């Protein structure tokens, strides 16, 4: 098969520069297992519908299976001049079984072929992403359960705000990654639609059985419009958007790990095996894994924008621009999956430095809101209580006192509503225990959240 499959109407060879510029086999060859799988399903259907003979289908399938083994064992010779994975496999099949190989392409086009291959590939990636998200969520739940009594400062504007349980903080990330899981599950349903049978753009005159192919390939539905099917890349955009959101969450987690490991915070340590050193400063222990997760989020955001830019002005149906969907997709897959695994290792290896967290809670007047709430219970309107506590905090700053160190007689100079029982309101443990609202940081509520998450994860694992 020396001539290009589409070369019949051409009178001269393709310019080498054009071949180099248009070829995609150097990246789309990773679709080969899916291309072969879809081709085998297509061949079986053609035989069942008596479009080709059973003997021809058997010969085609045997040839495809042999090519699959060669690719898996690294013996297959990829030829860039054949443009892409599909034409490389078709040419190899022709060399193995002769002209009957040409019958495989009956009732299909590279347009519906590539759309099918990418959906099969991405379905596997999403399944793996969901699994790795479940592992990450489990690691957060485990770490939260181990640290149910640990209190650290909660922050707003990166300033000390109120005391919270470390477990509550970790479970906040559980909720982010739970939403990421739900997004990927929804994307999988969008992916799992079979476009094969749409052919180039208008369908095919052959009496094919699209349902048979869809069943064999595990698709749940058929595409409903052939023109849309061959040009639709929404499912990739949906995946890239879900991946970008997930990387944003991973980046936020990474940022906190980086901050918490710094001497200024000193809240955690990480195992040496997850850190690197400096080529010049022998004392350094750097959280490079977290930094790279944070940094790689940008490329995933860019991949989403790249594909949106490709599709935004395309007329129906297939245009060669759509070849540019795969590199952003593959890069995102190759970034997301390792990042999820490494984030899991970071959480599993994270060692809280509880004494430093406790010491940090003693700075910044974290129970000032509790003092305002105390005054409200005593009958003062909240805005008046807020203003009064602000004055007390200013007094503490001037005198170098913590709230619970202020003598009762000094408190009562601000208002006689403050009595001896105020000191119960100013403890860290009292502060977190009082926040019993559903979703709050009280130990009983956080314990409930952990149990609910454990049940959720067990159900997902058994599904």
Question: Any overview of this molecule?
Answer:
Helix 6 (110-146) packs antiparallel against helix 19 (443-462), helix 10 (234-261) packs parallel to helix 12 and helix 11 (288-311) packs antiparallel against helix 12 (326-349). The model has no long low-confidence stretch (mean pLDDT 96). This protein has three domains: 7-106, Fumarase/aspartase (N-terminal domain) (Fumarase C, Chain B, domain 1, Orthogonal Bundle), CATH 1.10.275.10; 111-150 and 163-203 and 220-358, Fumarase/aspartase (Central domain) (Fumarase C, Chain A, domain 2); 361-462, Fumarase/aspartase (C-terminal domain) (Ribonucleotide Reductase Protein R1, domain 1, Orthogonal Bundle). The longest helix has 37 residues, at 110-146. A hairpin with a 2-residue loop joins strand 1 and strand 2. The protein contains 19 helices and six strands. The two termini are 48 Å apart. The protein is mainly alpha-helical and 463 residues long. It has a two-stranded antiparallel ribbon with strand order 1-2.
